[in-house]
Amino acid sequence: MELTGAEILVRSLKEEGVKHLFGYPGGAVLHIYDALYQQEDIKHVLVRHEQAATHAADGYARSTGKAGVALVTSGPGATNAVTGIATAFMDSIPMVVITGQVFTNMIGNDAFQEVDSIGITRPCVKHNFLVKDVADLAETIKKAFYIATTGRPGPVVIDLPKDVTAAKAEFNYPKEISMRSYSPVVEGHMGQIKRAVTMMLSAQRPIFYTGGGVVLGRGAAELTELVQQLNYPVTNTLMGLGAYPATDKQFLGMLGMHGTYEANMTMHHCDVLIAIGARFDDRVTGNIEKFCPHAKIIHVDIDPSSISKNVKVDVPIVGSVTNVLQEMIAMLKEGDKKPDEQALGEWWKQITEWRGADCLKYDTESGKVKPQQVVEALYRETNGDAYVTSDVGQHQMWAAQYYKFDKPYRWINSGGLGTMGFGLPAAMGVQFAHPDATVACVTGEGSIQMCIQELSTCLQYGLPIKIVALNNRYLGMVRQWQEFFYDGRYAMSYMDALPDFVKLAESYGHVGMRIDNPADVDGAMEEAMKLKDRLVFMDFVTDSEENVYPMIPAGAGLNEMILV
Amino acid sequence: MENETGALSRVAGLFSARGYNIESLTVAPTEDPSLSRMTVVTSGSEEIIEQITKQLNKLIDVVKLVNLSEDEHIEREMALIKVKAVGEAREEYKRLADIFNGRIIDVTEASYTIELTDSGDKIVEFIAAINADQIIEIVRSGVSGIARGEKSLHA
Ligand SMILES: Cc1cc2nc3c(=O)[nH]c(=O)nc-3n(C[C@H](O)[C@H](O)[C@H](O)COP(=O)(O)OP(=O)(O)OC[C@H]3O[C@@H](n4cnc5c(N)ncnc54)[C@H](O)[C@@H]3O)c2cc1C
Ligand SMILES: Cc1ncc(C[n+]2csc(CCOP(=O)(O)OP(=O)(O)O)c2C)c(N)n1
Ligand SMILES: [Mg+2]
Asked: What pLDDT is attached to residue B124?
């Protein structure tokens, strides 16, 4: 039977197992909305701004490992979605975004609500497609999901002209797809893996530096096994948090600009660095010239272009984390060589000393609500088992430092692009994927205002998200830099004319709370968590001058941190 | 690469977005109409060339990539050079064209258009041999390259 393009799209999404679609209607996608209206398998979630549709799809993906899907109209719908697409691109998140487009014969005519969506999104997608013939539609959708979810994941845009959604074709959804121009490597080179294992075993001062790739590649169990088999220390990037249990004694915390003293010192002094699914970002390496001066480096990554991009490595291994880690584990079990116990003992002794600096301690006597205290209360009150999304700024760093993630997929934040406004819509996506779980959004009074309109979406769908606003009345991360590097000239970083967030939450139909006394933090958190089916906006009036420590200033090495 | 609309702009966009040099770029369909072949001439340190290679390979439309300069290969570029040609210069340009294996393909009372197909270096040499103020216009095609011997992109 012949179906319209719109029907083919909906049927194809079903074939891909899509349950939720985050979107916003408009002229170019009306046929698609009509097809959605006439079925019940896919739930369409109406956001209040297209940026939120992409962030929600992204949050859905980050918390499940499956591709998130968004649908927006042509022109302004597509341009509003770009920030979310770029956010997903920078963090390698699998996502399929369908953008409406003007009629094929109008393309290029400056037609109403026309933009060159393919051109605009090209630099921030893994791939994009303009579908000009309805006969190609099903296969294109298959390709889009295949590309988005395999290899190094990423967002894929399908630009769909309105006439194509009305035209008819036979519907045959391909079972399998293979593309001559795209076949990601999964299995690592055995010779290289062997070299890596030998190098790992010869280490006197080893460390595992692992990142988002372990989460994306579902390699957390293998990583944990390997690290524990060897009894080596391990640190995670911001994107890798949860890939190794944070409460385990071998875990040193996050590394990098706002990483712990012990993680950064251990990195700096190591002799063998085992990097897995991490991309040597400049927030992690600090000054490249000073990065791990004594280290031989092993690097496992599925994307060859991540390897030796910023830092030249000694043993490159292209392959998926799961596969390569399994091989390493097996090789270690078979071989009879063991790590150098004595050297390792010395190394742990040194690390314990660094840990003694207690770099995350903070003033608990100030009489002010400390942001760190709030995150610790959140951790306790949720038994460390919540899904935590965040926005961008100081609060993001505090969430990363003080919430101890033991499982992957629990920590949802924008690391690569650093997109303020991400937190709330991402939390919506997470809550749809995990309706019974506790989902908290740690945010700032600046960031939350960038997608505040989504409080309305949350009411419509009854999403009981717990918003933890660390309200310091400042664009705090900006203020911190101005305090440190611009002699305290706080240009445009004071957030004046703030709304009353309690009333604001209430006017959207939610529960609002203001907490300005440190003694009330725990109680408020407990009360909020008890409101299981309500969204609660907790406005914590925090110490406005608090800074994120440790911090590595620009140009410094990992051993040159500013401590409290 | 796949002969798709947009494939060219993906390559061009990659070079500009990542700040790589493009000295020249040529593209045309191959014996298989679903594929087109592109020759890019670029320059950079070993690390940069490695990144360029990896980034190009990552583009979904790129089917196969070889670095021709790693092996023996042939480069050819065509140039059309229009020069002022009056008096003695007419003989002189004819001789020069002969020496470089060029052909005069268009003649007027005051001008010649010379076609030259050779490596980029030879074309530069030829142009250098002509007095700059005698040149009316130059069009260069950009370099196309192919491996020497039986080797091909297919194998
Ligand atoms: C305000 C702010 C402060 C920040 N401060 C810090 C900081 O102090 N410390 C810090 O670490 N970050 C910090 N970041 C984040 C930083 O910008 C980067 O986003 C982050 O460091 C990158 O993490 P990653 O290396 O794990 O790479 P990701 O971006 O997560 O990339 C994953 C890597 O794994 C690879 N990969 C994907 N799938 C697989 C697979 N299946 N198998 C193998 N490999 C795979 C990919 O190819 C890629 O190379 C900060 C961000 C912000 C906004
Ligand atoms: C969309 C966007 N614009 C600007 C920035 C730059 N920026 C990074 S952190 C920050 C301040 C965030 O303020 P707030 O949300 O209040 O968080 P705080 O740092 O105070 O915890 C700004 C402006 C950004 N990351 N994203
Ligand atoms: Mg703030």
From this structure: 96
* Domain residue ranges in chain B: 7-65, 73-145
Say how many CA atoms lie within 13 Å of A291 toward its Cβ. Answer: 21
What domains, with CATH codes, occur in chain A?
A: 2-170 (3.40.50.970), 190-355 (3.40.50.1220), 371-541 (3.40.50.970)
What is the C-alpha separation between A386 and A406, in angstroms, rounded? 10
CB contact under 8 A, A308 and B47: yes
β-bridge mates for residue A366, sequence order: none
Amino acid identity of residue A233, one-letter, is: P
Q: Do the Cβ atoms of A379 and A362 come closer than 8 Å?
A: no
Q: Is the CB of A302 under 6 A from ligand 1?
A: yes
Q: How far is CA A5 from CA A2, A98, A220, A377, in A?
A: 10, 13, 40, 51
Minimum-distance CB partner of A305 among B13, B55, B62: B55
Q: Considering only CA atoms, which of A142, A131, A133 is closest in space to residue A169?
A: A133
Report the pLDDT value the prediction gives residue B153, as an integer from 0 to 100: 87
Residues A175, B17: Cα–Cα separation, whole Å: 36
What backbone torsions phi and psi does residue A199 show, to the nearest 5 degrees?
A: -65, -40
Number of neighbouring beta carbons within 10 Å of residue B139: 11
Is B10 within 8 Å of A122 when comparing Cβ atoms? Answer: yes
Q: In the beta sheet, which residues pair with residue A276?
A: A210, A300
Give the helix ranges, DSSP H, for A65-207.
Answer: 76-90, 117-121, 137-149, 162-166, 190-201
**Residues B76-115: pLDDT tens digits?**
999 999 999 999 999 999 999 999 999 999 999 999 999 9
pLDDT higher than threshold 90 for residue A564: no
For residue A142, give both structure tokens.
């298959």
Q: Give the closest residue to A398 by CA, choosing from A546, A198, A529, A544.
A: A546
DSSP class of B46 = H
Architecture of domain B73-145: 2-Layer Sandwich (3.30)
Res. A1 pLDDT band, cuts 50 70 90: confident
List, for residues A512-545, the tens digit of each pLDDT value: 999 999 999 999 999 999 999 999 999 999 999 9
ipTM of the complex: 0.92
DSSP conformation letters of A301-342? ES-GGGTTSSS--SEEEES-HHHHHHHHHHHHHHS-----HH
Please choose, from the candidates A556, A558, A481, the residue with its C-alpha nearest in 3D space to the C-alpha of residue A256: A558
Tell me which DSSP letter residue A238 carries: G
- Interface of A to B at Cβ within 8 Å reads 118-119, 122-123, 126-127, 130, 147, 179-182, 303-305, 308-309, 312
Q: What's this model's pTM, rounded to 2 decimal places?
A: 0.97
3-state helix, strand, coil in chain A (%, to 5): 40, 20, 40
**Cβ–Cβ < 8 Å for B40, B22:** yes
Residues whose CB falls within 8 Å of the CB of residue A514, separated by 6 or more in sequence, listed in order: A501, A502, A539, A541
CA distance A88 to A13: 20
CATH of domain B7-65: 3.30.70.260
